[in-house]
Amino acid sequence: MLDKESKHKPIKSAIIVSKVYKRPVAGAIREIASFLQSLGVTAYLDQNTSVGFNIPEVPCISRKQMQNQDLIIVVGGDGSVLGAARTLVDLNVPVLGVNRGHLGLLTDVSPSQLHQALTSIVAGRYTKEMRMMLDVRVTRENEDGASELVGQSLATNETVIHSGMLAHMMVFSVSIDDNFMYSLRGDGIIVNTPTGSTAYSLSAGGPIIEPHLDVLSLVPMFPQSLNCSPIIIPGSSAVRIDFERPETPEWININCDGQVTIRGDTNCTVSICQHKTPLTLIHPEGYDYYSVLRQKLGWGQQLF
Fold it and tell me: Does 203 belong to an annotated binding site?
């Protein structure tokens, strides 16, 4: 959901978060912290960022203390925002992405716009947007018939269920809210949010979905069928995926946002639903989703 109201409460405190990459972002972190302080904002580093960068002039804050702050600023690329979202979404603190990566669909503050954007945001002039996240659980029945948890993760973009081997098909069935949808033979399936519709799903032929819509998308991967198209379902749906069980169980991989992989087998069940807490993103004034698609993905551009 996109909040059209652009005037909000001013920002008084902010936490800077960044992954430790070879990419030199320490200078950017220092610049952001210094500029925030010049605007009267108390700037912190989260504990992981503080350990990874030697910036003693910016105080460190614990995870528990973070929930009382006004803003989380993620410095890096879209992958940095995806990683931060999984671990920080339940704090319910708005997130702003500052782009130091490549594409920047989620990190929409560029280095050239940094000071102007931060000045407006600190003054309360920004747009708020709620982005759905997925809760992914992999379970297996034990010998007593009880369900045991194999793995669990959140995802902002998508979860991809596949065999983990190149060009290796598997057979699985998909149910929505305990209603059987179909059985499929293919390389796997992508279950994505509207945010993830411009990520891996797009490469697999899935539709672009406006991020404020409360829907999920299911995109089969290389199905051995001519009539198995992607489908859009309500965002409140509970998706269940079961696998054909050969005599000897085969490995499957359940990948979340291309960053977390849960290793299971064909005796497992994958359950996917909407996470209880959405990710709150902050955009600078004038944010336009269609403009982002045109600029970042070349959407709608003439070929000749």
Answer: yes
3-state helix, strand, coil in the chain (%, to 5): 20, 40, 40
Q: CA 152, CA 139: separation in Å to the nearest integer?
A: 9
pLDDT in tens, 22-39: 567 888 999 999 999 999
The answer to whether 157 is annotated as binding is yes
193-246 pLDDT per residue, tens = 999 999 999 999 999 999 999 999 999 999 888 788 999 999 999 999 999 988
Cα angle 67-133-267, degrees, rounded to a multiple of 5: 120
pTM: predicted TM-score of the whole model, two decimal places: 0.92
Amino acid at 22: K
CATH 3.40.50.10330: which residues of the chain? Answer: 13-131+278-297
Annotated catalytic sites, by residue?
78
Domain 13-131+278-297 CATH superfamily: Probable inorganic polyphosphate/atp-NAD kinase; domain 1 (3.40.50.10330)
Quickly name the fold that domain 134-274 has.
Tumour Suppressor Smad4 (2.60.200)
- 135: annotated binding-site residue? no
